[in-house]
């Protein structure tokens, strides 16, 4: 009887594993889970996905069966598939990060070590956190349109994963991409502008420590909206540095706002992305937050001060920005000089 009561008190946990996601080998992971999971706290099971969308079905079954925690073993795509089945339920989501970017896991400051991530699950600290919705589709990290949605499409077409493939697409396509005109309506009114991209961030980064919204919070009920204005080849290095230095908000090409809901209209249908997955949608895009709509296992030892750029990083970024401004001034001087020379030549 005592044994039966102890078994009843254990939390039920299921690990949903995408065998092909990301760049991390999952060979030996079931054995690692068996060695590391706290069997005094949990009754656990491991299941594998067989097709795109299968993780959502498995997670929905887990909710119906009264499972306490569903663990997404994979990248942000797997996290999204599982998370959308768990919103507004009593079943929590945990993450064992095995993807190529691991944006949500990095925002939550979960260990990238597989063993340590399972140990974090053993501590079972669960918070109610926000998630976002774009045109009816939940997202947990970021969504957006413009260049980052275009690159997400190219990344998906490439087949290969990892930061090198992503960087190759950014470098190859970035200078050829034509900015679009958008009309943004939020609680503050309506504005029309041309943008290279518009990102709406529930969490702070795309993944791989590229911080598109360093101060984003998953518990404030708001999205950080980042508008990147058109830029040229002279601006690109500074923007890249700011993304990884957590100083993107200081860049002159970046405009930011916070909103719990907004409507974005564009001139043509095209791609959007949700947590890095691209789809084609229409001209009007509706985005909003669901405040504290999902339960997530967090790292109780997370040091949020790590999202703040170090003083030396700020200094380097500012120095680089000043250098870029000097280059712009010199470039303008050269253009003026060239025009004067051309005029004189025309008068000869």
Protein model, in words:
There is one protein chain. The strands form four sheets. The protein has a six-stranded antiparallel β-sheet, covered by helices on one side. Helices cover 36% and strands 31% of the residues. A hairpin with a 2-residue loop joins strand 8 and strand 9. The N terminus is likely disordered. The chain is of the alpha+beta class. The protein is globular, with a radius of gyration of 23 Å. It contains ten helices and 18 strands.
SSE succession: HEHEHEHEHHEEEHHEEEEEEHEEEEEH
Mean pLDDT over the residues: 84
Question: What is the terminal separation in angstroms?
Answer: 106 Å
Shape descriptor reads: globular
E-strand count: 18
Radius of gyration, CA atoms, in whole angstroms: 23 Å
Task: Give start-end ranges of low-pLDDT stretches.
Answer: 1-5
User: Structural class of the helix and strand makeup?
Assistant: alpha+beta
Helical segment count? 10
What fraction, in percent, of the residue positions are helical?
A: 25-40%
Q: In this structure, how is the largest beta sheet organized?
A: 6 strands, antiparallel
Strand order of the largest sheet: 6-5-18-15-8-9
Question: Which percent range describes the beta-strand content?
Answer: 25-35%
